[in-house]
Amino acid sequence: MDRRESLQWMLAAAALPSMWGDAMAKPAKPAKARGYGTDPDLVKRHQTGALWPLTMSAARRRTAAALCSVIIPADEQSPGAAELGVHVFIDEWISAPYPSHAKDRALIVQGLAWMDAESQRRFGRPFAEAVQAQQHAICDDICFVPKAAPPFAEAATFFARYRDLTAGGFYTTPQGAKDLRFVGNVASASFDGPPPEVLKIVGVQG
Amino acid sequence: MPFVTTRTATRKDQHYDVIVVGSGAAGGQTAYTLAMDGVRVLMLEAGRNYDIVAETPMFQTNADAPLRGAATPDKPFGFYDATIDGGWAVPGEPYTNASEADGAKFEWWRARMLGGRTNHWGRIALRNGPYDFKPFTRDGLGFDWPIGYDDLAPYYDKVEMLIGVYGSNEGLENTPDSPPGVLLPSPAARVGERLIGQRAKALGVPVVPIHRAVLTTRLDHTTLPARLHPGNATAQRILAADMQRRAACFWATPCSRGCSIRATYQSPAVHLPPALETGKLDIVCNAMAYEVTLDRAGRANGVRFVDKATGKHELVNARVVVLAASACESVRILLNSKSAQHPQGLANSSGKLGRYVMDTVGSDLGGQVPLLENLPPHNEDGAGGSHVYSPWWLYQQQKKGQLDFARGYHIEMGSGRRLPSLATAAGLEWLTGGSYGRAFKADARRYYGSFVYFQGRGEMIPNEDSYCEIDPVVKDRFGIPVLRFHWRWSDHETRQAAHMQRSFADIIGAMGGRMQDPPEADGRKAIANGGSIIHEVGGAIMGSDRAASVTNGFGQTWDVANLFITDGAVFASNADKNPTLTIMALAWRTADHIVERLRRKEL
Question: How far apart are CA B177 and CA B287, in angstroms?
């Protein structure tokens, strides 16, 4: 390509609708805290945020909660992720002083900023204040990495990670486990194996 | 005289018969056997004391844990893994690799706690078979052991009766049966395990009950003590009482957390309580051993250690020294026990100390099985681990040269509706097309419990390029020189890993399942890093030729008559069978030998 074409291509690239670059203008500072060490108390119930300070701003927290609600809303069987405080778990996650969490921190802080910027750009309001159809319009563009248009590639990567964390935070709660109809983790006098109806469905021997 | 201080252990009027370094499978079994036979034992453990009743998280869910129980550098197998002060990296206790290249790295898992790695291990308790002790005779590779299956069989029996192992006798090639009445009943197979069995069978792959050290029923305290300790009324009484304090499995919580009701084998649950009850065992915790000392006649007479509480260097003495610190740690102690007579380290006149370190070949693959979707809810916790496995099934093809690798592997497998974790509904996009919202919740319900995964665990042949030595520069926080590892897989291992991938893909396909990625055809990419399966053995192999091995068939070092090794360091080969049961059987046999020699005043 000649110099003129090259310049045009660069200008076109700069005009792409992605705000990811803007969101990245302020890189997230790494969390400064100590981990729980190699000999933590395994028996006590650990409250979210008790081990290291949570670091999301109030505005970012609202975006995080809104996105949790979009990914796992309340339905007939269980509450939504935000109602169970899953966004607070995500704050704990990105505030944790471990290397892989620092990576997620960068991705998620920027991703949440992108969600707000994109919502502002399209609808003139932050993501948490957008109506459901508007929230879905954004999420539809970024919910599947292989099908995300190039301008949404980074946002889609963020969304995939955020969905995994939301799902992890949700299904590990008692309400989430109930939603999956998990029935274990109770002491029993015997282990009898799968019930006959299960064997019949799968077509295996008793 | 149970847990004692350094001050007590180093008192001049202490007359220990034997010092045992380490408190895990090897140290626990060694100390148990010796103490039950009236031998005075001092055990040194580098980690802290550990109370399985008070400290084991039995019913906590991941919501109770920081980061929902996720693995971190502090807890590399997840928050609730029983390991304390351990992992691939122990703060202040480094090791080095000569090369960081792919396939040349060795990772070393340690657990600095009473009972060591037995607290979190998978409880898989497989016997080596007759072929596994004579691999060189069979195919001309590696080394034969100086002992055979028949030498160890009585000790496998004893260990299984003592610790409690569930499983079945299937009469399969090189997969030994136990005598009648030794094994505990197998738990019923889960639905996914049954489907694997049904479909794998059609491919010629057997799926049979696995052997695991979990009490599916309580141990028979009325008959077992007499079978284990004939003619020893004291030992029988102590063991009978202790067996009654162990509960049977109540079919909940993963064994890797440890077991506060003592339904699984961990050294602090099974070996140490009766051994302490004899009054013959003293244990010093936080004692980081680093050197075996010699008297003027060249006999071992003590062990030097750093008391981690005070930082002081201490010396304890005994008539016999047993190293059971884990294969590489025992080698490290010997390499660091240099003197004018032993400039290359103690028990190293052969130059073989540190040589022939082996791990298990590991390769994994998972799939999703539509037949297992949306099943009626039912409890699949079971015995806190797998109920079935596939022993190696192609011995004859291998013998005929029909495979391009020399040794076998077994398959461990998992499935089911398990305690929800961060992974339960993660990474579903390849199935859902990226759903979110109400559709995602429906997808999560649909796919929960429909996944199966396979882990190959195969034999590595010892080679000249896989070894450890003392790093010339690096020292740990105690000032003790650390190990430097060298590693190389041969084609036998990498081809085996590729074969594992094909086998897993075939089974998943036969189940009507699908895989996110195709099986890895390149064995060099399919194989896990050396050490990462945490089955490292060798480094002080036993043999019948003192020029080519470090110990004889009793784990007695060729160079120092009263110095023994009872951990995995003495393995002359590393069969696909998980090493822990064999470590315990060898330790019991060596301890019996020490008792006999002490009685004859030969030590």
Answer: 40
Chain CA centroid to CA B42, Å? 23
Contact A33, A97 (CB under 8 A): yes
CA distance B360 to B529: 10
Contact of B359 with B493, CB cutoff 8 Å: no
Mean pLDDT of the A60-73 span: 98
Q: Which two tokens stand for residue B480?
A: 């003790």
- How many other CB atoms are there within 10 angstroms of residue A33's CB atom? 13
Q: How many CB pairs under 8 A join A and B?
A: 218
Q: What angle do CA A87, A90, A93 make, to 5 degrees?
A: 160
Task: Please work out, in degrees rounded to the nearest 5, the angle formed at the alpha carbon of residue A201 by the alpha carbons of A199 and A204.
Answer: 40
- Residue B417, chain A, CB below 8 Å: the answer is yes
A77 at B interface, C-beta within 8 A: yes
* Strand (E) or helix (H) holding B470: strand B467-475
Secondary element (H or E) of residue B306: strand B300-307
- The whole-angstrom separation of Cα A72 and Cα A62 is 15
Q: Which letter does DSSP use for residue B293 in this model?
A: E
Q: Which residues of A touch B114 (CB under 8 A)?
A: none
What is the DSSP track for A92-126? HHHTSSSHHHHHHHHHHHHHHHHHHHHHHHHHSS-
Backbone angles phi, psi at B94, to 5 degrees: -75, 170
Q: Which pLDDT tens digit goes with each residue over B47-65?
A: 999 999 999 999 999 999 9
Whole-number Å distance between alpha carbons of A185 and B521: 39
Phi-psi region of B265 (alpha: psi -120 to 50; beta: other; left: phi over 0): beta
Q: How far apart are CA B149 and CA B127, in angstroms?
A: 9
Substitution target from A84, A200, A202 for chain B, most B beta carbons within 10 A: A202
Domain spans of chain A? 17-24+48-184
A101-121: average pLDDT: 97
Chain A residue with Cα closest to B370: A202
Q: Do B66 and A42 touch (CB under 8 A)?
A: no
Q: How many alpha carbons fall within 13 Å on the CB side of residue B214?
A: 29
SS3 state of residue B526: helix
CA–CA separation, B163 vs B448, rounded Å?
34
| Alpha-carbon span A185 to A167, nearest angstrom | 20
Is B248 an interface residue toward A (CB < 8 Å)?
Answer: no
A162: closest CA of chain B, how far (Å): 10
Alpha carbons B306 and A197: distance in angstroms, whole number: 60
Q: Which 8-state DSSP code applies to residue A141?
A: H
First to last CA, chain A: 69
Reported ipTM? 0.95
Minimal CA–CA distance to B163: which of B274, B75, B84, B53?
A: B274
Which DSSP helix (H) or strand (E) runs through B96? strand B96-97
pLDDT at A44 over 70: yes
Phi-psi region of B146 (alpha: psi -120 to 50; beta: other; left: phi over 0): alpha
- Read off the pLDDT of each residue in B398-410 and give the average, rounded to a whole number: 97
Pairwise CA distance, residues B208 & B321, whole Å = 41
Q: Decide if pLDDT at A27 tops 70.
A: no
What is the radius of gyration, based on Cα positions, of chain B?
Answer: 24
Nearest CA in chain B to A143: B434
Instruction: Give A188's contacts in chain B (Cβ within 8 Å).
Output: 250-252, 379
Dig out the tokens for B139 from the structure: 């195919």
Which residues of chain B does A202 touch, with a Cβ-Cβ cutoff of 8 Å?
191, 194-195, 371-372, 375
For chain B, the domains span 186-209+363-458+490-526
Distance from CA of A132 to the nearest CA of B (A): 11
User: Is B247 near chain A, with CB under 8 Å?
Assistant: no
The answer to whether B136 and B142 are in contact (CB under 8 A) is yes
